[in-house]
Amino acid sequence: MTDDKIKNAENEIQGVAKDVKGHVKDAVGGLTGDIGLQAEGKFDQFAGHMQQDFADLYEEGESTVEKIVTFVRDKPLLSVGLVSGLSLALGWLLFPRRKRS
């Protein structure tokens, strides 16, 4: 595993740990009637979910970039053609030609 994948896995594990800690705080706060502890638990759950989601998005983005790099390496001329065509289309959309009178 590369360093990025190890860090990503650690990030996801930390997210799960925060989520579990949040569930425990929420339950203990509910049993004792401590609204503040329940709120902390809800916040920890939210933070844990967000950390897990970020790790998932990072992994998906990494695989997409790898696919693009592979495509460009395998088909460089087609890649240049696609980028040129998209650039022309974007130019026509953003800077339309003016009619001369």
Automatic annotation (TrEMBL):
SUPFAM superfamilies xrefs: Hypothetical protein YjbJ
Keyword DNA-binding on entry: no
High-level lineage: Bacteria, Pseudomonadati, Pseudomonadota, Alphaproteobacteria, Acetobacterales
Segments passing through the bilayer: 77-95
Name the UniProt record assigns to this protein: CsbD family protein
Disulfide bond in keyword set: no
The entry's keywords: Membrane, Transmembrane, Transmembrane helix
Domain CsbD-like: 11-62
Similarity field: Belongs to the UPF0337 (CsbD) family.
Classification via InterPro entries: CsbD, YjbJ_sf
Source species, domain of life: Bacteria
Pfam families named in the record: CsbD
Signal peptide limits: none
